[in-house]
Design brief:
By secondary structure, this protein is of the alpha/beta class. It is 32% helix and 17% strand. Helix 4 packs parallel to helix 5 and helix 5 runs parallel beside helix 6.
Length: 341
């Protein structure tokens, strides 16, 4: 796969050579490679460069995805923020997502919900619209993927929590559209990195081999007519993390990264700390009862004493930077709402 990678790095300053010219020269002079080998590698390179926008469709593609959970994780963070991770935006996601939020709300007084769409994809834009509909009480235009604008329904039973939507460069297709429409309708803000730019409708074309080629032909539009950019959706709050780091945080949002995953020292880390943004609360001052008990038991109230350590165990710290920023945001919004008359 000799295409894409070398040329993508120099795309801003150097024009790529003509594909046919390169192909013919390699075909004539490269030894140890048949025409079939070269054709396969050229096609694979093209698919890699245009990943998500051009796809070779297998006949068993859809049937192989039956009974696959669309929500892979749900939990409550810091006692009052719901966290729901989505693997793929497809039919049935609204039922799974809504059920997860309802279950978490049943036993917790929630301040908001983190919708994690990092590494999520899908091409079911109707499913994205149905999820967005869960947050909206009034009829609002949502999405247009070629069949006219779809609107939300007027209703009372909605998710009233503010949403923080996490995305990265691997967020594509219907997941991008879902993030964009939640922001456009005022249901949430987007945090993380610029998305993949694959929110497009596609057409399929028959190939001589009997296979089908799916090509993205037109962008999906928001309800106001704005086309989603092929350069991706920019977040409201950018959090700079590599994909390897995010994958490590996916395994354990509270864990410290291995040294191999840590970035080189840089001044930019002042605004994007990889250890997260939320910090454990300070220990409270000892009360009079604490002083009496300490004197009675012969304990010291020094900061490093056993008593001080036992008085209040440190809370687990979220080290996933995007997730930590989202939790802080939702908690801050809750404080602002409470302070309003």
């Amino acid at each position: 796969m000799f295409l894409a990678t070398p040329f993508a790095r120099a795309a801003e300053t150097n024009a790529a050579p003509d594909f046919k010219e390169v192909y013919d020269l390699v075909r004539q002079h490269l030894t140890g490679m048949t025409d079939a080998d070269l054709n396969r590698d050229a096609v694979e390179g093209l698919f890699t460069s245009l990943r998500g926008k051009v796809t070779l469709v297998a006949g068993e593609e859809m049937s192989a995805r039956t009974n696959v959970a669309l929500v892979s994780k749900s939990s409550v963070l810091e006692n009052d923020v719901a966290y729901v991770r989505v693997d793929r935006v497809e039919a049935g996601l609204a039922r799974e997502f809504g059920g997860a939020v309802q279950q978490l709300s049943a036993t917790n007084k929630l301040k908001g919900v983190v919708l994690d769409l990092r590494f999520a994809g899908g091409d079911d834009y109707a499913a994205a619209a149905v999820v967005a509909n869960l947050f909206l009480a009034d009829a609002k235009p949502l999405l247009d993927w070629g069949n006219g604008v779809v609107k939300s329904e007027k209703k009372d039973n909605i998710i009233k929590l503010p949403a923080a939507v996490l995305v990265n460069r691997e967020t594509g297709g219907a997941a991008e559209a879902l993030a964009a429409v939640l922001r456009e309708t005022g249901a949430g803000l987007i945090l993380g990195g610029t998305t993949a730019g694959r929110a497009m409708t596609s057409q399929e074309f028959a190939l001589k081999s009997g296979q089908r080629l799916r090509i993205a032909t037109s962008p999906v539009k928001l309800g106001n007519g704005t086309a989603l950019s092929p350069q991706g959706i920019k977040p409201d709050i950018e959090v700079s993390v590599t994909l390897d780091q995010e994958r490590a945080y996916f395994e354990d949002a509270y864990g410290r990264l291995a040294k191999s995953n840590l970035p080189a020292a840089s001044g930019s880390l002042a605004t994007n700390q990889l250890d997260g943004t939320n910090r454990p609360a300070r220990r409270p001052r000892p009360t009079e009862a604490d002083l009496v008990r300490a004197r009675r038991d012969g304990l010291s109230l020094d900061a490093d004493s056993t008593f001080a350590r036992d008085a209040e165990p440190e809370k687990p710290l979220i080290r996933d930077p995007a997730l930590a920023r989202a939790v802080d945001l939702l908690k801050g919004l809750a404080v602002v709402r409470q302070s309003r008359p």
